[in-house]
Request: fold
Amino acid sequence: MKTMINIKADVEVKKSAQKIAYDLGLPLSGVINAFLKDFIRSRSIAFSSIPHMTPALKSVLGKIETDIKKNKNMSPVFSSAQEANNYLDNL
Reply:
């Protein structure tokens, strides 16, 4: 016997979850059912306060690290706020 569960989710969260489920060849309802079954079996839910970097953020940080190693796109060291303001005004 099946039943309906109505939940509120952010539009982008739903779309992203549907896309990933589709890419894996699963309906989103199957993914949600799997999570619910795991919740029932383990009687627990895991939350993490450790942030995880997205692939996009890793890519940006990788480019920044490369720039730092090459001393590229680096601003000079300033000894005062006025010196920093003058530098920015002349960009």
Observations:
- The mean pLDDT is 91.
- Residues 55-89 form one domain.
